[in-house]
């Protein structure tokens, strides 16, 4: 378990990275989540980002 020491900086970093990841359809990997190994981002206009195409396991998934 880790703790974010600079939460305000994390918000700025996500604001910079998420639009590019969304445009490139980047797959995000979660190494410590037992129910979600990977996902892509989605965003409806004016709303928050959400996880879509959730893969519970990466067996047989082309990266």
Describe the structure.
- By secondary structure, the protein is α+β, with helices and mostly antiparallel strands.
- The protein has a domain at 26-63.
- It is 29% helix and 24% strand.
- It is built from one helix and three strands.
- A hairpin with an 8-residue loop joins β1 and β2 (38-43).
- It is globular and about 35 Å long.
- The mean pLDDT is 88.
Question: Judging from the principal axes of the Cα atoms, what is the shape?
Answer: globular
Order of helices and strands: HEEE
Distance between the termini: 26 Å
Spatial strand arrangement across the major sheet: 1-2-3
Q: What class do helices, strands and sheet pairing give? A: alpha+beta
Whole-number mean pLDDT? 88
Task: Let me know the largest β-sheet.
Answer: 3 strands, antiparallel
Number of strands: 3
Taken as a percent bin, the fraction of beta residues is: 15-25%
Rg, Å, rounded:
13 Å
Query: How large is the count of helical segments?
Result: 1
Helix content: 25-40%
Contiguous low-pLDDT stretches (5 residues minimum) are none
């Amino acid at each position: 378990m880790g703790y974010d020491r600079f939460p305000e900086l994390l918000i700025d970093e996500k604001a910079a990275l998420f639009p590019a990841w969304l445009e490139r359809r980047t797959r995000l990997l979660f190494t410590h989540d037992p129910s979600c190994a990977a996902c892509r981002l989605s965003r409806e206009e004016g709303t928050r980002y959400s996880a879509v195409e959730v893969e519970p396991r990466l067996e047989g998934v082309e990266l």
